[in-house]
């Protein structure tokens, strides 16, 4: 088997309304497709990212960690803290860049990433 490309990454959402508010208002993603309260798909810089209701999420799945690249990690971390978003960790990866790990309203972990040298 050969993988052609990454088509989509999605996480389960226990509360679709709260998850949509988080991904759209806090992270600034714009929906490109929605199937009612079951599925919302976003274009995250040319990569598909989606949230799926419990009806769409496979039983027993352990989840995924989506990583979103940002230009100004410090500013985004300040915005997240001000919005009451739980930040779990910050990590400096040397010449690669830095990440901040946070939790969405459904308990999914995600990371914001800034390349070294980006401001």
UniProtKB/TrEMBL annotation:
PROSITE patterns: VOC (PS51819). The keyword Lyase applies. Keywords: Lyase. Residues 5-115 form the VOC domain. InterPro entries: Anthracycline_SecMetBiosynth (IPR052164), Glyas_Bleomycin-R_OHBP_Dase (IPR029068), Glyas_Fos-R_dOase_dom (IPR004360), VOC_core (IPR037523). One of its GO terms (molecular function) is lyase activity. It holds the Pfam family Glyoxalase. It comes from the Bacteria. Gene3D superfamilies: 2,3-Dihydroxybiphenyl 1,2-Dioxygenase, domain 1. This is Putative enzyme related to lactoylglutathione lyase. It comes from Ancylobacter tetraedralis.
């Amino acid at each position: 088997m050969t993988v052609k490309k990454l088509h989509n990454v999605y996480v389960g959402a226990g509360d679709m309304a709260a998850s949509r508010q988080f991904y759209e208002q806090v992270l600034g993603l714009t929906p490109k497709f929605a199937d009612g309260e079951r599925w919302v798909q976003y274009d995250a810089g040319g990569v598909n990212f989606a949230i799926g209701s419990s009806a769409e999420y496979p039983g027993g799945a352990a989840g995924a960690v989506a990583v979103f690249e940002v230009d100004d990690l410090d500013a985004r971390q300040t915005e997240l803290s001000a919005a009451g978003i739980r930040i779990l960790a910050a990590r400096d990866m040397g010449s690669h860049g830095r990440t901040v790990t946070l939790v969405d309203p459904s308990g999914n972990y995600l990371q914001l990433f800034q390349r070294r040298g980006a401001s």
